[in-house]
Amino acid sequence: MAQLTQAARPTLDRPISIVSWLSRKNRAYYLLGYVLLILLSAWTIFPFYWQIATSVRLDVDLYRPSVTLVPQALTLEHYAKVLTGTSSQFPIQFRNSLYVGLGTTLVAVVFGSMGAYALTRLRFFARAGLARILVYAYLAPASVLFIPLFMLMNSLNLRDNLLGLALTHLTFSVPFATWMLMGYFKTLPIELEEAALVDGAGRLTTLWRIVMPLSAPAIVVVAVFTFTLSWNEFLYALVLIQAKENMTVPVGLTAYVVADVFYWGQMMAAATIMSLPPLLLYFFGQRWVIAGWTAGAVKN
Amino acid sequence: MATLGTTARRMPLAVPAGGPRLGRDWRLGYALTLPVVLVIVGLIAFPLGYSVWLSLQDIKLGGQGTFVGAGNYSKILLDSTSRIHDQFWNSVYVTAVYVGGALCGKFILGMTTALILHAQIKARNLWRALLFLPWSIPAIVSSYSWKWIYNDVNGIFNNLLMGYGLIERPILFLADPTLAVWSVLLAVIWQGTPFWTMTFLAGLQAIPHELYEAAEIDGASTAKSFWHITLPNLTSVILVTVMLSAIFTTNSIQYIYILTNGGPGGATETFPLLAISQGLRAYDLGIAAAIPLLFFPMFALFIYVLTKRMLRTES
User: Fold this and answer.
1) Which residues of A138-154 are buried (b: 16+ CB within 10 A; e: fewer)?
2) Burial class (CB within 10 angstroms; exposed 0-12, middle 13-18, buried 19+) of B81
């Protein structure tokens, strides 16, 4: 039956002449599909291409009346100015973003693992209610929260402060991490933990020695997502941070707008550098995840 | 009693099937969930309540508040002589156009992309990587890219159009009151489509292939099987995606903030932008707290439905 299904579905593995290809059933849809694929890809790629192309262009090339789609000459001067310019705040802001992102991620993963373990393995009053509140919390709109959080951080003397900003990032990262890890913990075979408990290991030992190592792929994925959310966060950072040396990169990018004059080359260079950490994390995280899944001999 | 509890805990396998198999342990349960509860109470629930309290006061930043009851709400909703009344109703209209337009655009593009990626195409991974590209770029970064693309001086759109002699003067994509919201929408749709593609792809993969085979045997056209098989089977995925995306689209302010900052003349001022300008520029915190709260019932409804669904798929 499976083979029949396989044969009935059109395959494009063998080279065929375009005429016989088109004359087959549904071929028009495939042709339309490829045309659409090319158009859609051009649409998704263009702004990114333009960002990179702008960042490596000479200023004379950028502000010419008839700009060309392909840069005339390549330069790294914008990157140099952003990274090493004497008045550039970018390196400090990059470090700030790293601090906030890493701190938020660490707290979210630790709190999330503890909470998720309790919510999936332990039985206690209000467990189900708490799981429900977690989803409410995750979806709590930032547009409602930013004014009171601003006032809260103001009264705690944590406004214009990286710790205060990191605290606001917990509002989305902790519920998110807990919820994601709950989903993963539920898929883990419970027999291993039972065996450990029977052998006299405590709950915390079981969590630390069995659940956490088995969950490494999920933890990496959650960490990557949490870090990215925090790294890209804009509203709380905009509202809370005033001093340039306290800004994270998303808000710091506004520095390339000086009284309606845009330094587009530097702006796009800074923006490109900002896009790198999440991309690198996805790249390495993906390898981790695949390794985690394929090495799953322990799991069923 | 305590010994009994301990014994029960030490015998995890003795707990009847159906409940959590590892038994009862409330002390550790509360201890382990305490940090999460603290975050939810301290940083989400308390601020929400505080926001309601703020919205009932006439309070300026740094000043002492006076309790005005529903005064702020009636001023915003009913007092046609106040400026904030006009601004608020304008923001309701703009938010509706913005979110509605974004949802429609993302639905059409996301569905098209998902259907193509679901079909048997060559080099699927490559195409997928290209089509998901907008997702992997931070929204703040791409919002600046779009601002540069739309720019009236040396922006690539205007440069190309003028280069081919199609227009004589630059089009003010972001400064023209009627055009601005559509320019913002185009960029927002660009950024948000991959999320829809992803959920639709997952939904498509869950539809049993036998349904299509049966339809093919019955002689149904591709369009017909899309209408009678694909769409009905995706209803719940579509519903969840629409609600999630509505919440995310309304709350992510980067694109509007960077592209137009609510301008020109309020033409793109959705309610979070209005709340920001009331709170952080006019320093009128009571009003600023009340504005998002007026939209909260809609969010609450979405969140309620979503929660029910998320928990149902869990169990």
Assistant:
1) bbbbbbbbbbbbbbbbe
2) exposed
Nearest CB to A149; choose among B47, B120, B187: B47
| Domains of chain B with bracketed CATH | 86-314 (1.10.3720.10)
CB contact under 8 A, B257 and A133: no
Which residues from chain B sit within 8 angstroms of residue A147, using beta carbons?
51, 54, 275, 279, 285, 288-289, 292
Q: Which of A225, A248, A27 is nearest to A112 (CA)?
A: A225
Residue of A nearest to B156 (CA): A67
For the CA atoms of A224, A225, A229, A232, the dihedral, rounded to the nearest 10 degrees, stands at: 50
Residue in the structure block whose two tokens are 């999630």: B244
Give chain A's domains with CATH numbers. Answer: 18-83 (no CATH), 86-294 (1.10.3720.10)
ipTM, 2 decimals?
0.83
Give the pLDDT of chain B (315 residues) as one tens digit per residue: 333 334 344 444 444 444 444 457 778 888 899 999 999 999 999 999 999 998 998 888 777 888 888 888 988 888 888 888 888 999 999 999 999 999 999 999 999 999 888 877 788 888 888 898 898 889 999 999 999 999 888 888 888 888 888 888 888 888 889 999 999 999 999 999 999 998 898 888 888 888 888 888 888 777 788 888 888 888 888 988 898 898 889 888 889 999 998 878 889 999 999 998 888 877 888 889 999 999 888 888 888 888 777 766 554
Provide the shortest C-alpha distance from residue B80 to chain A (in Å): 24
Cβ A109 vs Cβ A222: under 8 Å: yes
Contacts of B121 (CB under 8 A, 6+ apart): A12, A30, A33, A34, A37, B127
Q: Please tell me the distance from the alpha carbon of residue A29 to that of residue B187, in angstroms, as a whole number.
A: 28
Q: For helices A142-155 and B46-55, what crossing angle results, to 10°? A: 90
Distance from CA of A203 to the nearest CA of B (A): 8
- Nearest C-alpha in A relative to B302: A139
Q: How far apart are CA A106 and CA B209, in angstroms?
A: 43
Structural contact between residues B173 and B179, judged by C-beta atoms closer than 8 angstroms: yes
Whether B244 contacts A141, CB under 8 Å: no
Please give the C-alpha separations between residue B263 and each of A2, A27, A174, A220, B117, in angstroms, as whole numbers: 58, 48, 35, 41, 38
With b for 16 or more beta-carbon neighbours within 10 A and e for fewer, the B281-290 pattern comes to eeebbbbbbb
Q: How far apart are CA A252 and CA A98, in angstroms?
A: 14
- β partners of residue A261: A258
Taking the C-alpha atoms of residue A126 and residue A136, their distance in angstroms, rounded to an integer, is 15
Bridge partners (DSSP) of residue A201 are none
Q: Give the pTM.
A: 0.83
